[in-house]
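Listing 4. Sequential folding, example run.
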Amino acid sequence: MTNWIEATNLLMSARSIVIVTHPRPDGDAIGSMLGLGNQIRTMGKEVICAVDEGVPAYLQFLPGAENVVSSLDAGQWDLCITTDVADETRAGQVGEYALAHAAAVINIDHHPTNPLFGDVPLVYPQAVSAAEVAFDWWEYLGVHYDRDVALPLLTGIVTDSQGFRTSSTSARTLEIAMHLMRRGASLTEVTARALESKTSSEFELWKRTLPGASLDGQVITAVVTLADAQAVGMDDTTDAGLVQFLINVEDARVACVFKERAGGQVGLSLRAKRGYDVAGVAVAFGGGGHIQAAGATINGTLADVMSRVIPLLHSAASKGRLDIV
């Protein structure tokens, strides 16, 4: 659903704007946020971009990343824009505050499970990323923008399409990427920094995690414990892109990395080969995402969560079709 006229009217009438995205942000979350914020600032408006915990280190090369705040505890805004937020409950603490202190809300997203919250939802499930929706908005307005907008938007598209490899990638996706490159965005830079680069801590985490990875039939899994994350100097438990590495194993159809977190929670990073669906697994546990890439956070111990999730992974693997091309 897209309503460019109503969204544009809200944007043009607003003087103060806050833009928020989901916690543990990925390239699309930060890329779409900065691709919006950097352009809106050129319109002479007051803009604050916020996300819980701030911008991850690997995305701090993006223009405007240094201006993103990690908390909100004061302020009122004419407009709140959420981007890449599948529903209001996933906007984090900054999102909760922003949504409660804004006169109007525009919801920019591409998740098919989005409940169309906000005053104006710009939700386009066919888009490969929220950054693509932001791109379409600027195209609708016919605005001029440069590298400071193009580079974040290209980052969102490249990361959410996993380097143009997901089933949602279309000829138009490549056309948009080409357009952004003409505006100064470097595909080489985005690919190197946002997809391929690994810190030494992430390398050490993979060393600790891979020996315990398991391929059981068509399902491949790995576990990142809180102790391992802390041992390599990570404050938060991440798989550092490991799930994408695992799904490339030839016999695997479905991949999952279980990430133990403080407070008795376990995060899931899910991937599937084309023709297989892991979104249903995520949704079953209150999560969300896309057919080939999804995630969730579940209360419980590692053993308990794994016992509940693994049967659904096997079910997902058994229902897929490899003849889809």
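-- end of first protein; second protein begins --
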Amino acid sequence: MDIFKRIILNMNIKKINLNHSLIFFLFCNIFSLIIYKINNLNISPLFCLLLILTIGVSHGSLDHVKGRKLFNILKINQISIFYFLYILTAILVTIIWIILPSISLMIFLFVAAFHFGKEDTQFLISGNSYFKQLLFFLKGLLIIFAPMYFHFDETISIFKFLLVESEIFYTILEFIEVSKILSIGIFLSTLSSVYLIIIKFEIKKSLIFLDLFSILILNYYLLPLVAFTIYFCFLHSIRHSITLIYEINKNDFKNGLKVFIIKALPLTILTSFFCLFGIYLLNNSYDLNSSILKMIFIGLASLTFPHILLEYFLEKNEK
């Protein structure tokens, strides 16, 4: 019976995510075209930050619930240990970024590529082989390579805002651009998407192509920060939230959504408070836009690493 329920649940998630990908694809076309035609329309980094602090951050705001679940599996009663380790990891990532920004950025980009590729796709793919992990990584590389391919100079300017001043780092990036590695990376990412679709093909897997085209459209028409914000909030975060809502209530999506919002609200508000406080402190040394960019990407890195570690240990111990 549990297997049957899991199959039905997976089918429902696939159906909702297919509709979500279709709506997101249409939205990307319309929104990008409007922004492209209105050349003078400048989307503020502050607006991007507000979207990330609400819609974006909320998809990880149930990590404390997952932490309790992991500790129950490990038979650890002191949940305070989880909070301590989670916060400590986030702080350590921030400190390491300040000390070694170039290395931290490179590690973050590769980890983010795998994370995005896996979380956006794994509900469609059965099994967890090393080859499929590689396909997830290659698929996620599109998020990293597309803005560099279409807007290389603007992407580099963002990196410079993130405390990265190493000439060697930028020399490597320039070599990557000149040597057509970006084109090869996008081609491999597309190829991995094709392979993921044809593995046990079903029509619902076509959403992988819709997502791929949406990301390319966003990065072709929009500047890197705006393109990433739209992707992160309205594709990646909402997709992950859909899975969480179904885990809360498999039979009533609307009720699950209400419970999800209630559970996600405290940690979302707390995270937003610390981010805004951080911007206030940074604004004493940098201008507002620079402070916002630092908080968005360094802040996301500090939250992404403990989030990914939690997902890994929970998945491993559940099995």
